[in-house]
Design goal:
The complex is a heterodimer of chains A (about 80) and B (about 725). With about 80 residues, chain A is mostly beta strands. Chain A has one domain: Ferrous iron transport protein A (FeoA) (SH3 type barrels), CATH 2.30.30.90. Chain A is built from two helices and five strands. Chain A has a five-stranded antiparallel β-sheet with strand order 4-3-2-1-5. In chain A, a hairpin with a 6-residue loop joins strand 2 and strand 3. The longest helix of chain A is centred in the middle third of the chain and has 5 residues. By secondary structure, chain B is of the alpha/beta class. Among the domains of chain B are: about 170 residues, Rossmann fold (3-Layer(aba) Sandwich); about 80 residues, no CATH class. Helices cover about 60% and strands about 10% of the residues of chain B. In chain B, helix 3 links the parallel strand 5 and strand 6. Chains A and B meet through helix 1, strand 2 and strand 4 of A and helix 3, helix 11, helix 13, helix 17 and strand 12 of B. Strand 4 of chain A pairs antiparallel with strand 12 of chain B.
């Protein structure tokens, strides 16, 4: 599954980033890299762009780029 | 002999300005509380200038300490060093002392946001590799505590090789004294030990340095390795050959982009450090956090965005009215006083119609501009502008731009000049130029005077449903500006600036209450700039226009008037006489203006603007407004005041009674709407043209922008007038 398919409020860990795709490096510099635990917070109307939080910082990411991040869902303990 | 006495004055009572001994640079992530801390440390002792040759603003200020003073250079907020944006480049150049007119800093003050250690430590790690002394100010500790984040400063310090860390709360000033004391000795402290998160990179860099013939800085070699196909890599490739550098790169990064590999290595280190340093206590989500989260949901957020925009426009127009009436009354009183105390003639006319009317008609808009800038600054400081960019990304994408263009465009509602400079955060060159050319379409504060005047004079103050018709016309003008700008960007992105769609990756800062000091410092800065313009450019233009409207005086008209006066005085008495005298005087004044330099220029150009329904007076005012559009109202004030010296009536009444020679009113509704649209679309601002020239580094774009917008404004006004007059 990719970040693109996540549901609002869902948590996941990033497993693999396709760094060679356009627009991905800048997101990696902001901290979206393998091993990071993320949460899908909100989206704009239409679901695009998405708001992802990583270590307490919210980052905006477009659906197209979200498709380049493979994630594994984490079971929420709350 | 007078007895001498000694007066003792405590040292602190004398305004001692200690000599600046060292320069430090302050650096940190965007929204890390950097500006707040900078303002807190320097107070009002700061200056804003531009770095030579580039468009990044240079903020610097002085920190007064116990026994010395320090110059503090505020670097732009960035996430990493050595990227492609101007901001990131400047940071490296300033730190290494390569920037002309800026002292090489003897150390760095790094701002680390306690709620965003993750990104902060990434930048800090890069800075530590530059081998300059660093101390860290840990900001937002209060916010972090409220969120249940527990940070062990001792452990962090140990992990960072003993770097000094000072927790501060910039808003209240807690921890500031300890930080100030430490600032004095930063320069003497040794550069930090680099945490070896990626030994291979440093080793490769050191190996390459040994092979170069002219020595290079280690950071430059690292940047060259990390950024192929950029200005960073050229010096190294020239020395060692591009194939050799490419091979070294391949050994380090494989086939992936170097920066991606860098991010993996550095964040791995950051996560290890965070694991030791930071504990997140389980927290019940508080009411505010819940509310904010709900407000960030798609529909509430979008509704809120439009509500905020509506509130701003409402405020600009209704809150400012009492203040504006006050300024208007004061100007009228001054004019009346001068007219009563000075003999009629050139000097009296100069002071009342030139100086007071000219400057007064600009200063009157200060309340509106103040309110508008206040809102923009508060939105920026609270982090809401980034949220707006997020919400509007989809819309901007449809015209080939990204959400990054929203911030310059929103700022453009205050003034296009800082907005065009704000476009430098856009990494994609084509998107940046398209944004720069769209920004001047947004309704800036300088357009408000003419909008306010014409709407108040010619749009009925009626209600349409629960909306006010005047407000509706104003809203329409704002929408026409947005429409013009977005269409322009769309057209450009399909023709001259065709290219791949720009990406959109940005951090969304949390909402935070704006800091009073930061907001007031920024607001005072804007007001100062506005008043300086009103006091210089606009004042000078108003005076020149007055002179052009007053001279040359035709002797024939004067004698003609005196003869006519003698004639009516011998035939009439009482009220009819006074009425007739007034009529003669007005006609003489109008005749004087018609043959003045300005009148002649207006008449010369009148045929060009006649299809738009403008007479020579409107044409003259429009021509005079090309250097700076805010003078138009002043020019109209002068033109109509000079033409009617009988009594002080407001400009609105004068415009309403303006007629063509055959008695038809000049200002019909179609003509006024066309004139308004002309102002919405026309680029009447020399400062904007200059900043476009500087930002795009070519004359091509300002010339294009001016021609394009003038033609567009003319055509729009022509269509509205011609169609509207036939309805």
């Amino acid at each position: 599954m990719t970040l693109r398919e996540m549901q609002p409020g869902q948590k996941a860990r990033i497993e693999k980033v396709d760094a060679r795709q356009p627009g991905v490096v800048r997101l990696m510099v902001l901290g979206l890299i393998e091993g990071a635990e993320i949460q899908f917070e909100n989206a704009a109307i239409g679901g695009d762009p998405m708001e992802i939080s990583v270590f307490g910082t919210a980052i905006s990411i477009r659906k197209q780029q979200a498709g380049y991040f493979s994630v594994s869902p984490l079971v929420s303990n709350g | 002999m007078a007895e001498t006495s000694t007066i003792y004055v405590p040292v602190e009572k004398i305004g001692i300005r200690r000599r600046v001994s060292t320069t430090l640079a302050i650096i940190g992530n965007p929204n890390s509380g950097k500006s707040t801390l900078f303002n807190r440390l320097t107070g009002l002792r700061q200056t804003t200038a531009n770095y030579p040759g580039v468009t990044v603003e240079k903020h610097s200020g002085t920190v007064q300490l116990e026994s010395s003073a320090i110059e503090l250079v505020d670097l732009p907020g960035i996430y990493c060093l050595g990227g492609h944006s101007a901001d990131e480049r400047i940071a490296v150049d300033v730190i290494l002392g390569r920037m002309a007119d800026t002292h090489a800093p003897s150390g760095l003050l790094m701002i680390l946001d306690a709620t965003q250690l993750y990104q902060g430590l990434y930048l800090l790690q890069q800075l530590m590799e530059m081998q300059v002394p660093i101390i860290v100010a840990l900001t937002m500790t209060d916010v972090a505590t409220a969120k249940g984040i527990d940070i062990s400063i001792e452990v962090l310090q140990r992990q960072l090789g003993g770097i000094q860390i000072f927790p501060v709360v910039a808003t209240t000033g807690r921890g500031l004294e300890a930080l100030k004391t430490a600032l004095e000795s930063v320069a003497e402290s040794a550069p930090p030990q680099v945490p070896e998160s990626w030994p291979e990179l440093s080793k490769t860099a050191d190996r390459l340095i040994q092979q170069t013939s002219t020595p290079m800085q280690r950071i430059d070699v690292i940047q060259a390795l990390l950024h192929p196909d950029s200005f960073h890599s050229k010096p190294l490739e020239q020395q060692l050959g591009s194939q050799f550098v490419t091979d070294s790169r391949y050994a380090l990064f494989g086939v992936e982009p170097p920066q991606a590999v860098e991010a993996r290595h550095r964040y791995q280190w950051v996560r290890t450090v965070l694991g030791e340093v930071q504990r997140q206590a389980p927290m019940l989500e508080r009411f505010e956090a819940k509310t904010l989260r709900w407000l960030n949901r798609p529909w509430p957020a979008t509704v809120l965005f439009f509500a905020v925009m509506a509130l701003i426009f409402q405020a600009v127009f209704s809150w400012a009215t009492p203040m504006m009436n006050g300024i208007d009354a004061a100007a009228a009183t001054m004019s009346a006083w001068v007219a009563a105390h000075l003999p009629a003639g050139a000097i009296s006319s100069f002071i009342t119609d030139g100086v007071i009317a000219g400057v007064g008609s600009v200063v009157i808009f200060l309340p509106q501009i103040l309110i508008l800038f206040l809102f923009i600054i508060v939105l920026e400081d609270s982090g809401y502008l980034a949220r707006a960019a997020f919400l509007m990304d989809r819309v901007m994408r449809s015209v080939g731009l990204s959400g990054q263009s929203v911030i310059p465009m929103l700022s453009s509602f205050a003034c296009a000049v800082p907005a065009i400079m704000a476009a430098r955060v856009i990494s994609d060159r084509r998107a940046r130029i398209a944004t720069i050319l769209a920004a001047p379409f947004m309704t800036c504060s300088a357009r408000l005077p003419i909008y306010a005047l014409l709407i108040a004079a010619f749009v009925p103050d009626e209600s349409v449903g629960w909306l006010n018709l005047q407000g509706l016309v104003l809203l329409g003008l704002y929408l026409m500006g947005i429409l013009g700008g977005l269409t322009t960007a769309w057209l450009l992105k399909r023709t001259a600036l065709r290219g791949p769609k720009p990406d959109f990756a940005m951090a969304l800062p949390e909402f935070r209450w704006p800091n009073l000091q930061t907001v007031s410092i920024k607001l005072m800065d804007r007001v100062r700039i506005f008043l300086r313009r009103a006091g210089t450019i606009i004042f000078v233009v108003a005076i020149i226009v007055w002179a052009l409207a007053y001279f040359p005086r035709a002797g024939g008209i004067e004698t003609g008037m005196q003869n006519a006066v003698l004639q009516v005085e011998s035939t009439l008495t009482g009220a009819p006489l006074a009425e007739e005298l007034l009529r003669i005087e007005n006609e003489a004044a109008a005749a004087q203006l018609a043959q003045s330099f300005l009148g002649r220029a207006g008449k010369f150009i009148e045929p060009v603007f006649a299809p738009l329904g403008w007479d020579w007076r409107v044409s003259a005012a429009v021509i005079a407004g090309f250097p700076a559009r805010e003078v138009v109202v002043a020019v109209m004030g002068t033109i109509y005041a000079v033409g009617d010296k009988a009594e002080v009536t407001s400009l609105v009444d004068k415009l309403r009674s303006a007629t063509w020679p055959d008695g038809r009113p000049v200002f019909t509704l179609p003509m006024v709407l066309g004139l308004l649209l002309f102002y919405a679309w026309c680029l009447q601002c020399a400062a904007t043209l200059a900043v476009i020239r500087r930002e795009t580094n070519s004359w091509r774009w300002p010339i294009f922008a001016w021609t394009y917008m003038t033609v567009l404004g003319y055509t729009g006004a022509l269509l509205i007038y011609q169609i509207g007059s036939r309805l």
